[in-house]
Amino acid sequence: xxxxxxEGSLNLxxxxxxxxNALAFDxxxxxxxxxxxxxxxxxxxxGEGEGYYIPVGHxxxxxxxxxxxxxxxSRILGDETIAxxxxxxxxxxxxxxxxxxxxxxxxxxxxxxGWLVNPAGRSLNLKDLAWSYLGVExxxxxxxxxxxxxxxxxxxxxxxxVAPYAAADADMTYRLVGLLDNKLQELxxxxxxxxxxxxxxxxxxxxxxxxxxxDIPFLKEMSKELGQKLQALEEEIYxxxxxxxxxxxxxxxxxx
Length: 256
Hints:
The protein is an alpha/beta fold. It has ten helices and six strands; from the N terminus they run βαβββαβαβααααααα. The chain has helices at about 5-20, 65-75, 90-100, 110-115, 125-135, 140-145, 160-185, 190-210, 215-240, 250-255, and strands at about 1-5, 20-30, 40-45, 50-55, 85, 105-110. It has a six-stranded mixed beta sheet, sandwiched between helices. Helix 1 (about 5-20) packs parallel to helix 2 (about 65-75) and helix 3 (about 90-100) runs parallel beside helix 8. It is elongated.
């Protein structure tokens, strides 16, 4: 796995990718919500056993300015002749779109394929799929950023720590495609995957990015009115029961 931290290395990498037939991509960010997440880095893989990490949003460490990376990356990720692979592509594509990069030529989503192959599976997490299909035990996100009150964010971690994790994500995604494609063919699910599920991803992405228009002042007024009604109903309940208690407690309500 390699870290791309200078323009020369980036140009060389993109030149190699331009000759490839397929490319797996993944993003590292600060949030699980793609509409709030800040881009920290992009990882790419176009062959088994190799992966490249381009850091752009770490708070420390040598990295290229995103404006430069975006300009160069847009040409590759926007090239429909190169098949694109991702795990949970909708997330990655939204983050990239919000940062000025449009992904074209999406050809496989290992998360969606994993679900079609085994809808009752324990998890659609890339780490679980890598273990199930490749026998590879990957570093979990919790091992990297911690959990609970000790949890940190990707941008605060050193590039050297994030790079192998991120590059592995792209590499494993690339490796899983062939195996999952074979499974889809065996189970007679290829048509459903390629003609229904995959073309739906950009549609869902557009819907999520567009969002739903809300009348905030109306909802605030409605909330105020309903709050007053609820308060009046609670007072009526206390009168009927003869004492005050927590109406929202199933145990106290049961006793009453």
